[in-house]
């Protein structure tokens, strides 16, 4: 019995593959500061739980395949406030942004097809893309340029007869890069000119720290047929475990194709969609407070990290991640050592090794992604642990 | 921009494609008796909601990718009571049986691969299989033989160099067929001899009406490497909207491959898994009562249906479905007519047209699948509506 060539090409998640070692460290009584996963510690708004508790139907029944109407309407209202007019047909509720990506990739990619993605990128894109038989063609960037990729020549030289789409993450995971309006327009223009789908993963939309207006590729009416938005409540409302996301597109044929898969898997979880609908009623102060909190965390982590000898990092403009290069050869080995050999007063630290975020072989081996999802004092301690760990690791 | 050849080969669900017409009928004030979807009206056990309400963590965080430990342990305990010893590594929590199927198919099927499935079969299998580039090779059956397929010659003649797996649904959807122990053994033997995966969809395990012991392909220790069980809480505990299912296999490599996809999509919904874990604490009387209720419904629907002139059906032994052939040419047209043109005192009825359940072109056009998921009086009214509808349709 052979497994499929597609799954053989997939890998374990670089954010989650150290989970067994983490459990072993915890079993030894060690405390781990988790900067490896984008799991914020911000409280989930009470509105979610209130709505779930208010559910009193005797049967927990299937939801409609395209989504619970109240949720779809809440999403419509949210985009309306961003100045984007959507019909309910433009929205499909999914099981997290993850399923949205999975469905979209299955709809647009065939064996041998390519999708352009600026690297470093969210590693799970590989899984969603490889299971279709397609592959990522990485648009290279350099940390020294702040991971800048929105350059006409740079993107156009990667397009070939296999290219089906461009996928951007804005604000960026893992780099925290935020596209300017001009950069967004440029990428949209290229997609339109070259007849490519433009998949825009905007799950971190609210997390911008320079006063930028909330942006979406859906703004560009003239490329509405090309644009497919990936969105989610996970980060926006610190409700990752709800697994509620959405596909948004004005391309009717795209939505009709995606609906086949939505019907195939019947529906996304009913109660979570009911809770998620209520999340959209939180007031604007919620976002202002969360943004302030993350901005302060970003400033703290950048300050502390920059002070560690040999570490190179730039100040990210959005999301809650940053990439940094460490004075080591291999972040994978360093992470394993941190879990198996290191502790300071019983504490250690986790990050996501950088290699998995790159499409180009050999790149990112000494880089790490840090998620600044912990409160200030914990972040400070985590940076202290990283500094101590680096010192001890290099002194072995 | 072209969509993938794989999604083009997929179709809308025959159980859900009439949803827009149903909405239109409801907008006219019509009441619809839904026999089209396996959505039971049995109350979801209170244990689910109690567990959900007892969740008081401030952050609704991601669950572990393989599943919430309490849920995995609950499943282990359930199988233990069936005499099947599992480790936690043998269980992966999924977003319904649907995602379990999706992941398993992605792990075992490549472009051009075939999987044997007795027809008629659950139509969404087509979606999960076609998006991999694989296809179903249907093992033909005849209603006159009670849809019997567990025949060595019949199965072996369908196996060729493209065959990767056999997929059985036991108890069967849409036929309600329950395999005997000898039939299960036969299929397991063939899978082992021919080195094929044996995917056994057992989500209706508890729904058997002839006093049969609860059965699973996991019983056969000697084919443990071949067997992959698809399971779910949806039907077992009337909690379809929770979207909690699982992949069960003792094939370590299979579970390692599947874990790549589980990590890729991060996790299945946290609260629903917590609720699902609690469901496994319901006492055996729950199942006895539910089984009695469905058995009575089955007897009612078979009696009423058999009495309609021109209808052919056999008494199913399990699940909560039956296939019947109607005295019409095309069940699709008849369904549309029932929604658009027919009503009796404002009532009409829905079923799932049979064609979508067949892999062989042209088969099943005059057949329908009926889900006996409504209480007795509603079922009786639904059969009355079907009889009136047939009479009026054929008298046009």
Task: Describe this protein's structure.
Two copies of one chain form a homodimer. In chain A, α8 (181-193) links the parallel β5 (163-169) and β6. Chain A contains 13 helices and 13 strands. In chain A, α3 crosses α10 (270-279) and α4 (69-81) packs parallel to α10. Helices cover 37% and strands 15% of the residues of chain A. A seven-stranded mixed sheet of chain A has the order 2-8-7-6-5-3-4, sandwiched between helices. A four-stranded antiparallel sheet of chain A has the order 9-10-13-12. In chain A, strands 1-11 form a two-stranded parallel ribbon. The mean pLDDT of chain A is 96. The first copy, chain A, is α/β, with parallel strands linked by helices. The first copy, chain A, folds into two domains: 5-43 and 285-394, Aspartate Aminotransferase, domain 1, CATH 3.90.1150; 46-279, Aspartate Aminotransferase, domain 2, CATH 3.40.640.10. Chain A has helices spanning 5-9, 19-27, 46-53, 69-81, 96-108, 124-130, 152-156, 181-193, 252-264, 270-279, 284-306, 331-340, 376-394; strands at residues 31-34, 91-94, 114-118, 135-139, 163-169, 197-201, 227-232, 245-249, 312-313, 321-325, 347-350, 352-353, 367-371. Chains A and B meet through α1, α3, α5, α6 and α9 of A and α1, α3, α5, α6 and α9 of B.
């Amino acid at each position: 019995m052979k497994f499929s060539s597609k799954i053989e090409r997939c890998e374990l998640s670089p954010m989650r593959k150290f989970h067994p070692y983490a459990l072993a460290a915890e079993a030894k009584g060690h405390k781990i500061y988790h900067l490896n996963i984008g799991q914020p510690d911000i409280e989930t708004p009470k509105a979610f739980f209130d709505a779930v508790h208010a559910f009193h139907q005797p049967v927990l029944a299937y939801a409609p395949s395209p989504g619970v109407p109240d949720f779809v309407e809440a999403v419509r209202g949210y985009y309306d406030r961003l100045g984007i007019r959507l019909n309910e047909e433009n929205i499909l509720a999914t099981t997290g942004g993850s399923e949205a990506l999975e469905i979209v990739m299955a709809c647009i990619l065939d064996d041998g097809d390519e999708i352009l993605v600026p690297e470093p990128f969210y590693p799970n894109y590989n899984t969603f893309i490889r299971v279709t038989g397609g592959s990522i063609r990485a648009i290279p960037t350099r940390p020294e340029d702040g991971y800048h990729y929105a350059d006409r020549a740079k993107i156009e030289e990667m397009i070939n007869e296999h290219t089906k789409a461009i996928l951007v993450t804005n604000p960026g995971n893992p780099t925290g890069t935020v596209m300017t309006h001009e950069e967004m327009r440029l990428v949209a223009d290229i997609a339109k000119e070259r007849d490519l789908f433009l998949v825009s993963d905007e799950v971190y939309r609210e997390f911008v720290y320079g006063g930028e207006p909330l942006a979406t590729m859906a703004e560009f009416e003239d490329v509405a047929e090309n644009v497919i938005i990936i969105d989610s409540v996970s980060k926006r409302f610190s409700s990752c475990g709800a697994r509620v996301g959405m596909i948004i597109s004005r391309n009717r044929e795209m939505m009709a194709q995606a609906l086949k898969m939505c019907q195939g898997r019947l529906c996304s979880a009913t109660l979570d969609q009911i809770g998620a609908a209520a999340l959209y009623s939180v007031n604007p102060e919620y976002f202002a407070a969360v943004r302030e909190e993350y901005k302060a965390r970003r400033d703290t982590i950048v300050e502390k990290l920059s002070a560690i000898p040999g570490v190179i990092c730039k100040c990210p403009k959005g999301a809650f991640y940053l990439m940094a290069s460490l004075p080591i050869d291999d972040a994978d080995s360093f992470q394993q050592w941190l879990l198996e050999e290191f502790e300071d007063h019983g504490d250690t630290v986790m990050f996501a090794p950088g290699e998995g975020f790159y499409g180009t072989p050999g790149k990112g081996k000494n880089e790490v992604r840090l998620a600044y999802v912990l409160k200030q004092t914990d972040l400070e301690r985590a940076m202290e642990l990283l500094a101590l760990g680096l010192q001890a690791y290099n002194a072995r």
